[in-house]
Amino acid sequence: MTSPPTRADSAGPETVRGAATVRGRGAGFDPQNRFERLEVLHETPAEEAITTTLFRDASRSVISRNRSPDIPFDASLNPYRGCEHGCSYCYARPSHEYLGLSAGLDFESKILVKDDAPELLRRELTAPRWRAQTLAMSGVTDAYQPIEKRLGITRGCVEVLAELRHPLAIVTKNALVTRDLDLLQRLAAHQAVSVSISITTLDPELSAGMEPRASAPRRRLEAVARLAAAGVPVGVGVAPLVPGLNDHEIPAILDAAAEAGATFAGFTVLRLPGAVAQIFDDWLERTLPDRRKKILARVRSMRSGALHDARFGHRMRGEGFFAEQVAQLFEIARRKHGLARRGPRPSPDAFRRPNQQLSIFG
User: Fold this and answer.
1) HEC secondary structure over 210-246
2) What is the pLDDT of residue 3?
């Protein structure tokens, strides 16, 4: 066991200094789990590659309930826990702490897999008590993260949804979603689907640093174009907006999105709950040290002097001068291209259970 790394000064987040740049990963270390009393301290050698490890998730349900008033859905579907995309800013990282793991490298390299998710989903949706409502896919982690290409669990779930004509809303930053165009078109025929592609930046180098295993910006725009051409309602989420880093890109991102065929657009401001503040600050220190203080100062200016504000109604947009400036810039660009503020609500009207007797209208 090595001696513990030093902590940042009290004016900033408790960042672990000296964390390594780990090839292909967004986090540079594993911050202590807030629920664990014991901590194993070690140093990750610079440029060390960490292999993704998969674990079977034995959960008996794949539908999660949401009680947050500022999230526009009540139920979500997550075939995986943890996300290989490795986004340094990901607000979902602390969810791994409930599993006894870390919000840092563990979150992006130790992935729990619900290999029976399609069967569980079918069982839940065909139960007599189930009432069709929009299922949000990727409420916590991205259902189209890299391992999905090999495992195909998300596709299995979408096959169930397409068969039952069940409403689905997808949020992803991976162009892999276009693999399932055939199924998404079937849902689109019943106005039962919408897809939002997250585009944080158009700069491929910045994207590769912040979102190391997500699709490059060019490929995400290509995904928007393919979905639009196939008749699948598609929009973009400029998320997260990091003041002092990518907020100036709002007009360019919406220009590119509209040209590709997007019909709606939204945004959220950077959120840094729990250990995410440490991880993101360490990422800034390693990759953008000359801009670190400016970015964190602007984040604080939008969060009442703190790095995170969990209050409903505030956490997605922030407040203060810079928050208003970002919102106005986004609104001007959105109106310029006639983009709606949100996508169409997927309809539950065509939902049908297996062997359900259809009306004469089918």
Assistant:
1) HCCCCCCHHHHHHHHHHHHHCCCCEEEEEEEECCCCC
2) 32
Tokens of 162: 């397409």
Contacts of 51 (CB under 8 A, 6+ apart): 109
| C-alpha 141: how far from chain center | 6
Per DSSP, helices labelled H in the chain are: 105-109, 117-125, 147-151, 153-164, 181-188, 204-210, 217-229, 250-260, 276-287, 292-302, 321-336
Whole-number CA gyration radius for the chain: 21
Q: How far apart are CA 29 and CA 303, in angstroms?
A: 25
Distance CA(191)–CA(38), nearest Å, equals 51
pTM across the whole model = 0.88
Whether the per-residue pLDDT at 18 is higher than 50: the answer is no
For the chain, the distance separating the N- and C-terminal CA atoms, rounded to the nearest angstrom, is 66
CA–CA dist 60, 256 (Å, integer):
42
Q: Give the three-class secondary structure for 135.
A: strand
Q: How far apart are CA 304 and CA 307, in angstroms?
A: 8
